[in-house]
Every structure is written in structure tokens, then in C-alpha cells.
């Protein structure tokens, strides 16, 4: 086979648009490839449609998402106003009566992907919202739904998930034949671009939810090769709920997860708010890190210490609420340690965990196990105290202690000066 003609190859590298309509198609493809935000995409599409002569007065989308709290994002664009609705629907929200009487509810529950209604001169409209649109001067309306094939359930679509769109004209007679012909070609491309955006955002959300903010960025950057790891110096925070086994025997089986979530939320939120990273939950326990550098290690240690006290205070506050409701409670024990750890991928060929490993990780868990015997909710390693520098004076040694599986005993510390940490000690009711 001979080499292809050079001119032919060059002409195939790009497909330059020849009309304003083709320019719109090219733009949608480029946005789908390079990414944008959903609200920016619908706003710019509506504006571009107006620029090429489509009299669009209203555009609306509901975009399903994979998110622990949000089931869908909703945006509404209006001519000369831009985006006027930018909101989200929570999983916990019950749909209002307007939803059940809407065209969208009818379409989703009857397998209808396209609906068109002429509003001008129509006195027999079948949905209340269309009557409202007619009163606002809208003359024509249609909706198109796109199934992304993700196959999960949410409150907007019972069998699958995707994109709900609706479009409205204010021109006498509604959309023209030519406008409809263009919209039929544009809207599927728009939906495909939306799916591209939603897919990447879903991947980001899932990774951030399950492996943490910093780790998710590394995974998305392609650091997924087994064995790839880097040595980092970090504050290690190991937290564990004391009495979970006993509590599990005292409450109904279906209440265990909900109860555990209440406690884990009080443990995780202070870490995330302070810029740390929760690496993993281990049943009723949690491992988190604060990365150190030579320039800031003392300050980072102070942040980790104050954060730990806030975690303990949050659990104590939750316990008061549960006690007033006659519910069983748990105590929170925390160990703080500093060490060099390997941060990276560990696991089998097809199932990896992005975490920290090393002797320091084992040591911090062993230190936490001594909290009960030492009658405290917080134990601090000598390595942490050394890294804390000038905060040393606020801590006191409780001697050297043997840790299971660790050859050399470790010097451990408690807090001595409770007033040194912005009142966090008092909030945690930690005895000094």
C-alpha cells in the first residue's frame, strides 16, 4: 500500500465549519472534549442560538448526578436575564405537588422522551405549568429527555439517570420549521457535551467521597500504578470509638449504620475543615493525615492537636444529645503521631488502595489502644512533641510505654496546659 496523499491527510486534520450552524456544532464538540460547567454551557448555548436567529426565551435543564447528598442540579436560563435558577435537589428532599403534575413526571413515568406543546391559542393545555408559561407570553414549548445509561435510581428518574431539557419560544406562531430542524440537531450534541461534563464531575465526586480530596486528585492525574508511592512526613491522627461493640448489641441492627454515621461525621468534619485528609474509615475508627514540611511543622502540629480536641468536643456534644433522647453513647479516643510514611498504591493487580503504610502507621494505632488504660481521650507521641517545637511546654510526659509489636518503648504525652489551645481543651472537657 502506498503512502497517503499529503494534501489529503492535511485536509482531514480538521473540519472547519462553513456555516454559523456548523460553527455551533463545532463549539459543542469542543466543549464536550475540553470541559466546562453545566450552567456556563446552557447559558452560552442559549445565547448562541439567539445570535443565529432562534428566538429562544427560556431554556431549562435538570442534570442527574452521582453525589452523596445531591441527586440533581437544575438550571434555568431566560432571555436578557441569563441564568435565573441555579439550584440542586437533595436526596433527602421529597418532591412537591408541582413535580407530580409536571410534564417531566409524566414523561419519565411513561417512557416518553419527547413532548411538544403549542401554547399560543391553546385553551386545552394538559399541565398547569404550561398554563403559567402561556400567561407569561410563551408561545411554544417542548421537552427532550436523554438517558445517560448510568442505570441508578434517584428522585428525578426512577429507572435511570440523565438529562431533562425544555426549550421555549416567545415568537408569534412559536418555533419555525427551520428553528425546529436546527434544534433537533443541536440539542443531542448539547446532551452529549453535558454527559461528558457530568461523567468527569461524577468521577471526581466519587473519588473525593471514597478516597479523599488529595488522593482523588492524584488518582485522576493518573497515579494508579501498583507500587507507585512517595515518602512523606506527616502528622498521623488515629481515632477510634470506645464501646462500639457494646453499643451494637444495645440497638437495632438497622440503626447501627445511622448511629455510626453520626459519630464519624463529628470525627471527619474537623479534619477536613482544618485542611487534613481522612484516608479511610475502618469500622468505628478513622485514619487521617496532615502533611508536614520543615517550614510549617510546628504550626501543622498545633492545627492537628486543636482539631483532635474539636473532634472529642463534637463527640461529647453528640453524646449529650443522645443521652437526652435516652440513646446509648460512645467515647472517642485519639492518638497523634509524626513519622515518615509511604503514600501511594497498595493492593492486588485489579484492586488498589491509595493509603499510607509504614511503621509509624502501626505505632499510632498501638498508641491509641492505650487511651483507656491511661484514662484519657488523647495521647501524643514523643515524635509529635518534638515536631511541635515551642508547643512542648503545654504537654507533659506520662513516661515510656511498650507498644504491641514495637521493639522500643515510646514516650507518650498528655496535654498539661489546657488554656494554650484557644479553649479547645475546655470544649472537649479534657482533664489536664
SS content category:
alpha+beta
Query: For this structure, what is the CATH homologous superfamily of the largest domain?
Result: Nucleotide cyclase, GGDEF domain
Shape: elongated
CATH topology of the largest domain: Alpha-Beta Plaits
Number of domain units: 2
Number of helices: 14
The biggest sheet, with number of strands, parallel, antiparallel or mixed sense and barrel status, is: 8 strands, mixed
Radius of gyration: 29 Å
Mean pLDDT: 84
Q: How many strand segments?
A: 14
**Unreliable segments (pLDDT under 50, ≥5 consecutive)?**
1-13, 153-159
Series of secondary-structure elements, N-terminal to C-terminal: HHHEEEHHEHEEHHEHHEEHEEHEHEEH
Helical amount among residues, as a percent range?
Answer: 40-55%
Task: Please name the CATH architecture of the largest domain.
Answer: 2-Layer Sandwich
Task: Please report which band the strand proportion falls in: under 5%, 5-15%, 15-25%, 25-35%, 35-45% or over 45%.
Answer: 25-35%
CATH class wording of the largest domain: Alpha Beta
Distance N to C terminus:
85 Å
Structure in words:
The protein has 432 residues and is an alpha+beta fold. The chain folds into two domains: 193 residues, GAF domain (Beta-Lactamase, 2-Layer Sandwich); 205 residues, Nucleotide cyclase, GGDEF domain (Alpha-Beta Plaits, 2-Layer Sandwich). The chain contains 14 helices and 14 strands. Strands 7, 8, 9, 10, 11, 12, 13 and 14 form an eight-stranded mixed beta sheet that branches. Helix 2 runs parallel beside helix 7, helix 3 runs antiparallel to helix 7 and helix 11 packs across helix 13. It is elongated, with a radius of gyration of 29 Å. The relative contact order is 0.09.
Amino acid at each position: 500500500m502506498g503512502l497517503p496523499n499529503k494534501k489529503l491527510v492535511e485536509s482531514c486534520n480538521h473540519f472547519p465549519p462553513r456555516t454559523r450552524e456548523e460553527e455551533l456544532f463545532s463549539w459543542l464538540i469542543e466543549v464536550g472534549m475540553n470541559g466546562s460547567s453545566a450552567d456556563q454551557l446552557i447559558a452560552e448555548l442559549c445565547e448562541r442560538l439567539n445570535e443565529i436567529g432562534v428566538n429562544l426565551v427560556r431554556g431549562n435543564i435538570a442534570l442527574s448526578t452521582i453525589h452523596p447528598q445531591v441527586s440533581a442540579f437544575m438550571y434555568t436560563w431566560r432571555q436578557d436575564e441569563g441564568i435565573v435558577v441555579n439550584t440542586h435537589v437533595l436526596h433527602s428532599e421529597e418532591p412537591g405537588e408541582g413535580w407530580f403534575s409536571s410534564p417531566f413526571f409524566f414523561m419519565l413515568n411513561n417512557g416518553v422522551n419527547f413532548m411538544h406543546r403549542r401554547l399560543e391559542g391553546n385553551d386545552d393545555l394538559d399541565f398547569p405549568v404550561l398554563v403559567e408559561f402561556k400567561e407569561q407570553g410563551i408561545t411554544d414549548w417542548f421537552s427532550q429527555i436523554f438517558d445517560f445509561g448510568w442505570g441508578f435510581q434517584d428522585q428525578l428518574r426512577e429507572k435511570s439517570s440523565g438529562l431533562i431539557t425544555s426549550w421555549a419560544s416567545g415568537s408569534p406562531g412559536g418555533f419555525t420549521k427551520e428553528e425546529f430542524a436546527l434544534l433537533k440537531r443541536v440539542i443531542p450534541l448539547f446532551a452529549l457535551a453535558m454527559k461528558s461534563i457530568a461523567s468527569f464531575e461524577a468521577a471526581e465526586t466519587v473519588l473525593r467521597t471514597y478516597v479523599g480530596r488529595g488522593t482523588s486528585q492524584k488518582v485522576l492525574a493518573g497515579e494508579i500504578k501498583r507500587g507507585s508511592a512517595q515518602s512523606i512526613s506527616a502528622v498521623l491522627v488515629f481515632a477510634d470509638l470506645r464501646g462500639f461493640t457494646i453499643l451494637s448489641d444495645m440497638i437495632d441492627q438497622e440503626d447501627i449504620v445511622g448511629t455510626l454515621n453520626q459519630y464519624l461525621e463529628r470525627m471527619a468534619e474537623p479534619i477536613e475543615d482544618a485542611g487534613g485528609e481522612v484516608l479511610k474509615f475502618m469500622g468505628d475508627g478513622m485514619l487521617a493525615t496532615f502533611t508536614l514540611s520543615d517550614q510549617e511543622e510546628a504550626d501543622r502540629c498545633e492545627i492537628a492537636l486543636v482539631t483532635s480536641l474539636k473532634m472529642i468536643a463534637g463527640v461529647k456534644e453528640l453524646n449529650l444529645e443522645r443521652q437526652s433522647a435516652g440513646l446509648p453513647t460512645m467515647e472517642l479516643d485519639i492518638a497523634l503521631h509524626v513519622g515518615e510514611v509511604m503514600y501511594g498504591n497498595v493492593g492486588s493487580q485489579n484492586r488498589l488502595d491509595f493509603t499510607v503504610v509504614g511503621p509509624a502507621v502501626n505505632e499510632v494505632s498501638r498508641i491509641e489502644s492505650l487511651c483507656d488504660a491511661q484514662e484519657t481521650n488523647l495521647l501524643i507521641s514523643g515524635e509529635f512533641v518534638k515536631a511541635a517545637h515551642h508547643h512542648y511546654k503545654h504537654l507533659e510526659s506520662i513516661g515510656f510505654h511498650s507498644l504491641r509489636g514495637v521493639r522500643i518503648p515510646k514516650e507518650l504525652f498528655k496535654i498539661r496546659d489546657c488554656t494554650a489551645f484557644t479553649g479547645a481543651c475546655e470544649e472537649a472537657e479534657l482533664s489536664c
